[in-house]
Amino acid sequence: MAKKLLLVDVDCGVDDAQALMLALAAPDVEILGITCCHGNSTLENVCRNVLCVLKCCNRLEIPVYGGASRPLLGKNIHASEYHGVDGLGDVPDLEFPGLEALKKEHAVLAILRIVSEHPGQVTFVATGPLTNLALAFNMDPTLPQKIKSLFIMGGNMESRGNYTACGEFNFLCDPEAAYVVLNSFDCPTCISTWEFTFKNMLPWTFTRSGSPRTPRRQTL
């Protein structure tokens, strides 16, 4: 069976790190590239965090691209009070690969190139603000027709926010980009809202070698 081809766009905090590790562990998935965006932390930290996850998983062969460092309009907001200043919980002594491991190509250009190289085959997974994807659409309005499907983590259904009273963080980081994407992409699209992700979170208790571990606060 052919593997599912993923292009993953992240603002790598702790949640994105977990999502990446799950995708890396899936035997039927091939990640063609990881594009980075502002969000949970600064763009530089996000890029470092992705490289750190890939190093921990021995998958540094997957290309990583730096992208938008700010929203289309307005000011940056970050979630350092939740994910830590560095985006990965400020765990000491993490051996981050250097940013020289990043590809020189900009994330937006990489999105357009990779999708064009695999027309109709790429599933685009966006777990952060949609700035990179909106910019890619503005450069190539035919992009939605070239993507197999689009998965978005963002928004809400019940007007309850996780950053403001009514605002979900990813969409609030760049509402204009969310508007562009939601009104322009007509490929099959799934949106995992704040409520959905909250109700389907990973448990704190994991099993290793068949033995239950003691529940504790998870760190990376």
Automatic annotation (TrEMBL):
Top-level taxon: Eukaryota
Record domain Inosine/uridine-preferring nucleoside hydrolase: where: 7-206
Pfam families cross-referenced by the UniProt entry: IU_nuc_hydro
Listed InterPro entries: Inosine/uridine_hydrolase_dom, IUN_hydrolase, Ribo_hydro-like
PANTHER family, A to Z: NOVEL PROTEIN CONTAINING AN INOSINE-URIDINE PREFERRING NUCLEOSIDE HYDROLASE DOMAIN, SI:CH211-201H21.5-RELATED
Family statement: Belongs to the IUNH family.
Name the UniProt record assigns to this protein: Inosine/uridine-preferring nucleoside hydrolase domain-containing protein
Highest classification ranks of the organism: Eukaryota, Metazoa, Chordata, Craniata, Vertebrata
